[in-house]
Structure formats: structure tokens, C-alpha cells
Amino acid sequence: MRVLIVTGSSGGHIYPALALIDVLKDSGAELLLVLPKKNGDNFIPAGSLPVKYIPAANLNFALNSKSIKGLFAFLLGAWESLLIVIKFKPEVAVGFGSLNTVALMFWAWLFRIKTIIHEQNVIPGRANRLLSKLVDRVAVSFRQTSNYLNISGKKIVLTGNPLRQDLIKVDRKSALDYFGFREGKFNILITGGSQGSHKLNTICFEALAACRKKDDLQVIHITGSEDFSALKEKYVVANLTSKVFNFFLPMQYAYSLVDLIVCRAGATTIAELKRFRIPAILIPYPFAYAHQEANARILGDLKAALIIKDEELAAEKLTVTLNDFFENSDKLKAMRQAYEQQEASDAAVLLANEVLNLN
Fold first, then answer.
1. Residue 333, domain member (yes or no)
2. pLDDT tens digit string along 294-350?
């Protein structure tokens, strides 16, 4: 079977696609991944699988040069998507959301190719809302998503959000050795997602530096590219034990070690936290149609995470919250236990079965 997979440019779109590809490889399917020309090579090791790149489009309705360039990129991407579909002749096309997938999935629908999209977030994005009316199947990560789609429930299948096969728990000693950390300390992970978050980076560092027991902390901080150099120097000056990364792929080492994470609430992050059962302080990204607020509520309602609104995030408040966690291990234990309410399933395998059974 020839399977064409298209995603947006963020890790939240690309990681689930790569997880699906890992499983489909074992089926003998012929695969082609299509990505926007933006950030893709951060996620895809050279030569690891066939990849085509199309122009990255960002449409808006303002009358300015940026919107004109965005429209031109979208039209060029649509043309290149058409050529890819004609040349590759897929039997199934799989879309993972974002504007950059719309044209390719439309061409697949037009040529009567079997189609399926996957929605990572609780609240679907505009692209997947549109495509949901055309495609043969809509795979969702959360049961609640069906409430936001005006389509027949027969088209919707709950798979969960696929995670990479290598994202599995490693033993604690291996994780400590990987970061050069010592046993007996409190390990905390800070991350603003694959693109980084300047606000979260800044406030989290200030909060950690003001903690009462900062000498007992070991911090893993994934900053994104813009803040990397400045934050790495700040940790040195503050004499905080830390490992600072601008981008970090082998997250299984961090997830297997940390006692607490402070992060955004992207859909992939939520799925990863559920797999590793990590107590979390979630600061949902406040824009993009409040997708992350709905994602965060999944863990908030479980009592596995504490949610702080972005507009309420302040260093002083976060310091008080962190001190409370550091000094009350029972709270963290209860949050880990809360994950036991969730059903365990392999979303990548479930999605792969849906893809293979479409033909």
C-alpha cells in the first residue's frame, strides 16, 4: 500500500506523524511524508525516510505584503501538492492538521483516494474542521472532540495521540547519568514546546532562582533557539544545577527522571505526560482558539496537573507553588496516582490499523 502523510510544521503535528510512520514501516507500506519548508529538518534525521517539502503558508485577511506572500505560498504549495499526489499515486492520504495539509488532502479527495485525518487537540483546528466534511475517517485523541465536529459520529474513531516508539521509560540510573545529575535531588523539567516560550522561560527561571531549596534542585530547561544562550548563562550565574537545551529530542531520558514538569499544554505534551505519569504545572498557550486550555483541562480534571492561566503567570506566584511541591511529596504522589484513571492504549497502532483498513 502507498500511504501519503502530510503535516503542519510544528512538533505537535510532526511527532504523531512520525509515530504512525514507525508502525506503518512494519506493515511494508510504501510511505511518503510531506512537510512545509519550515522546521522540518529539526525533526527528520537525514535519509531516515522519503520526504517532500512544500512552501509553508500563513494566510490572513489583511491587505499587506505579508498576506500576499502567504497567499502566493499557499497557491504554490497547492500546485506542488497536486504534483506529489499525481506522481506518488497514493492509495491512502493521511493529514495531521494545519493549513498546509488542506490542499493535498483536497486533491486526494478529488481523485477518490481514501482519506483520514488525525486531530491532536480537544478542540479541532480550522483546517481539520473543514477537511472533516470531506474525508472518509476522522481520528481523534480525545472523546470530547466529537462535540466540536458537525459530522456523523460513524466517521469518528478514538485512537489517542500517537507517540514515537522510542519514547519509553528508561531506568533511573541511565537517566541520571545521561544528564550528569546526582541521586537524591528534586528534578524539574521546564519546556515551552518545540518553538520555545520567552515568557515561560523567563518567569520559570526567576521562580526557580528564588526557591527556598534551590541547592536541592536539578533543572532540565528546553528553551527554544532564541533564549538559549542567555538562559544558559543565567543558570551558571545563579549557581543552579542545570542542563539547558535549545532543542531536545530524546525526551524519554527527561520524562523518566523528573519529579515535576512546568510546560505548555500542547496535545503531544499531554499525551507524553499521560504515558510517563508526570505531575505537571500547565500554563496553556492563550491563543490559537484556546486549544491548549481545553487540552490542559483533561489533566486538570484528573487532578494530575495544576493549571495556571498565562495571564496569571508571575514569578512570585510560581515560586510559592514550586516551594509547596518541593516540600510536599504526598501531593506529587497523588498526582501520579491520578493517571491510573486513564485507559492505556497504543495510539500509533490504533491509527495505523485505521489507515491500513481504509483501502
1. no
2. 999 999 999 999 999 999 999 999 999 999 999 999 999 999 999 998 877 899 999
Paired strand residues for 307: 282
Pairing of strands 137-140, 156-158: parallel
**Cell digits for 328?**
510536599
Tell me if 158 is assigned to some domain.
yes
Q: Residue 127 CB: number of other CB atoms within 10 A?
A: 20
Single-letter residue type at 211: C
Q: Which three cell numbers stand for residue 165?
A: 516508539
* Regions in the chain scoring below 50 on pLDDT: none
Q: How many CB atoms lie under 10 A from the CB of residue 194?
A: 24
Statement: the pTM of the whole predicted model exceeds 0.70: yes
Read off the pLDDT of residues 123-161 as tens digits, 9 standing for 90 and up: 999 999 999 999 999 999 999 999 999 898 899 999 999
Is residue 235 domain-shared with residue 323, that is, in the same domain?
yes
Q: Tell me how far apart the alpha carbons of residues 326 and 332 are, in angstroms, rounded to a whole number.
A: 9
Strand partners, 92: 3, 114
Statement to judge: residues 73 and 147 lie in one domain? yes
The gap from C-alpha 28 to its chain's centroid, in whole angstroms, comes to 27
- At 66, which CATH number? 3.40.50.2000
Domain ranges, residue 226: 172-327
Task: Evaluate whether residue 338 is within a structural domain.
Answer: no
In sign, the C-alpha dihedral spanning 152, 155, 157, 161 is negative
